[in-house]
Amino acid sequence: MKPVKYDDGYVKHQIANVIRPIAQSWHFQSLKEYNALLSLYNISMEEVRGEAKGKPYSGIVYSALDSKGEKAGHPFKSSLFGKSVGYDALQKHIEKSVEIIKNKGLKERSKKVIAAAMHTCKTRPDFEKALAKQGISALFRTNNEGRIYGATFIDHEQKCVFNGSRLGKEFSANVFNDVFTGKGQEPENSPKQDAGQTFEPFDNSYKEKENDAGLGGLFDIFSPEAQVENPEEEAFIRKMKRKKNGKDHFHTINRIYFITMFKICILYRVI
């Protein structure tokens, strides 16, 4: 398929060479997604509604687009290209596409590629280039203020078209607008935890010091700030009193007694 070039003439023939294979082999879940795909080939599709002989009807017309994306020449009724590209046939094709996309999980590949590009690219041009390398086209619709209000992704490898919101909330137009304007980025001066602050349970901190209790307590007696009661020993004693095993308790008391007597001997020699 090649994009339509209005100036080359034979516009009807050019349009037919695009819309027929697309309606046959591509997967889309709405006429809007179908129209987004056609726009890549300089074609516009419109749904027309009316009433004939007292009965409402719906139809499709196709138009060529010029280099500026504006309609060029007169539109063509879908009936000129065959039933396969008409309103009824497209609605049936949409129903089948919904089932195929769901059953084959065709969204997953596109979601992974788009998510990876969002993580590495901070500008819209870089994002679009990254997707193009993976065979995906990104179409964004913006208002006069430049705000993105629509996003559509076209996976050429899987021949699927996805509106951003169909892939998930994280791929909606508002999210991309925030990402490309910097609103979605984490502030640089975000509050951080003070590296000097630690919050550990008493039992854990004690276990780290338990093996050094005898040696540490020995040197503490030479310090001017040394106190008669050792907080670690007191905490250790309180902890041991809660133990139910009498044998462990007995050994623990002996250990504390030995350490205490050893400190007294050292202190006596110093004095």
Structure description:
The chain is an alpha+beta fold. It folds into 3 domains: 1-104, no CATH class; 106-185, no CATH class; 202-270, no CATH class. The chain is 49% helix and 17% strand. It has helices spanning 11-25, 31-39, 87-104, 107-120, 124-133, 164-167, 173-181, 202-210, 213-220, 231-241, 246-270; strands spanning 43-52, 55-65, 71-77, 136-142, 148-155, 160-163. The chain has a 3-stranded antiparallel sheet with strand order 1-2-3. Strands 4-5-6 form a 3-stranded antiparallel sheet. Strand 1 (43-52) and strand 2 (55-65) form a beta hairpin. The longest helix has 25 residues, at 246-270. It is elongated.
The helix content, as a percent range, equals 40-55%
Shape: elongated
Distance from N terminus to C terminus (CA atoms, Å) equals 101 Å
Order of helices and strands: HHEEEHHHEEEHHHHHH
Structural class: alpha+beta
Average pLDDT value?
Answer: 79
**What's the total count of β strands?**
6
CA-atom Rg in angstroms: 37 Å
Number of domains: 3
Low-confidence stretches: 185-229
Largest sheet: 3 strands, antiparallel
Strand order of the largest sheet: 1-2-3
Keyphrases for this structure?
17% strand, three-stranded antiparallel sheet, 49% helix, 6 strands, 271 residues, 3 domains, alpha+beta
Short structural description:
This protein has 271 residues and is an alpha+beta fold.
SSE order and pairing:
Layout: H1 11-25, H2 31-39, E1 43-52, E2 55-65, E3 71-77, H3 87-104, H4 107-120, H5 124-133, E4 136-142, E5 148-155, E6 160-163, H6 164-167, H7 173-181, H8 202-210, H9 213-220, H10 231-241, H11 246-270
Antiparallel strand pairs: 1-2, 2-3, 4-5, 5-6
Helix pairs in contact: 10-11
